Amino acid sequence: MTEDARDEVDRLVAAWRTERPDLDVEPLQVLSRVSRLAKHLDRARRAAFAEHDLEPWEFDVLTALRRAGKPYELSPGALLRATLVTSGTMTNRIDRLAQAGLVRRRPDPEDRRGVLVSLTETGLARVDAAFSDLLRREHDLLSNLGPTDQRALAGLLRTLLAPFDSPL
Amino acid sequence: MTEDARDEVDRLVAAWRTERPDLDVEPLQVLSRVSRLAKHLDRARRAAFAEHDLEPWEFDVLTALRRAGKPYELSPGALLRATLVTSGTMTNRIDRLAQAGLVRRRPDPEDRRGVLVSLTETGLARVDAAFSDLLRREHDLLSNLGPTDQRALAGLLRTLLAPFDSPL
DNA sequence: GAGAGATATCTCGATGTCAAGACAGTACAC
DNA sequence: GTGTACTGTCTTGACATCGAGATATCTCTC
């Protein structure tokens, strides 16, 4: 009920209510904020990684490998499912990461169509450093929210995300 | 405390807890979900707009103009602030929208550096149709959440977004 | 064990974005 | 009024992404 605009989305919703009073624009309260927040997060991440000489896309691939645990090795197919990009993109990413010496490619001994990608020593060190730095910054971004609110927010987002993740 | 993975992010967090038990990865519960959800939303929007022969980037610009109200006219500078893109991108977008007959450019009579961009009749009709379609789909995406939860979620997101929106 | 269809990866062309800088015009202080 | 800093828009070149299709291999059925 409060009509004071507290963020851009409040202003945006107020404008729509004036222009299209016939429509129910409530969904924007959630979904526009998700999109905008993601865009800001991308920029924050870019800044965080710059100190470690990593691009966000490089980080995405390296963390997927890191999370897999020793020997830090996954197929391109597993990587593209983890990072939500297309196969052409993943091929390109792996090429450049390999050229930078952060990952290694080898043929899959069990499937001659397949390839396995693994972290190099350098890649492992780089991703570990960047990741703890990122967590520090993300922790700060969330500092306006208490632990209870954070858990509540995570739960609500999980509900929205579930239909996307399961049927894939 | 429940350790059953309910979405990809739960699995991701569990993997990190195993691999880096020294780090507090709680922030990912919120922020990874925001990023992933935004990515899925982009795809859903793309699908929705395809029926109206619009790309998401076209829609972003057209809605900003539509929201401004009659005469549906804004400067490129205002548009890029509304859409979080750079000036080079906005120039390119306006070029292509003008070529498609959806917007019109004219010199700003009050500032000879400036330009004003406005919706054409076609642009207005197109954006209105696409917008109500989008809202219908976004409404469905949120159907897993009751009205109370939606409001709670919007409020929590607003808290996170506020520091980004105000200091700009 | 042969064939059909599925799967894994890569190639290629088109495209949208960004960053940095160019340029014209404005505003403000002196 | 003149000079300096700022603002608004556009240009350019590099680059990451996507989508469609190519190729090789595997799997399953008969």
UniProtKB/TrEMBL annotation, chains A, B:
Organism this protein belongs to: Nonomuraea longispora
GO molecular function: DNA binding; DNA-binding transcription factor activity
Record keywords: DNA-binding, Transcription, Transcription regulation
Segments passing through the bilayer: none
Name this protein carries in UniProt: MarR family transcriptional regulator
Keyword DNA-binding part of the UniProt annotation: yes
Annotated InterPro entries: HTH_MarR-typ, Tscrpt_reg_MarR-type_CS, WH-like_DNA-bd_sf, WH_DNA-bd_sf
Gene3D superfamilies assigned: Winged helix-like DNA-binding domain superfamily/Winged helix DNA-binding domain
Keyword presence, Transferase: no
Residue span, HTH marR-type domain: 27-162
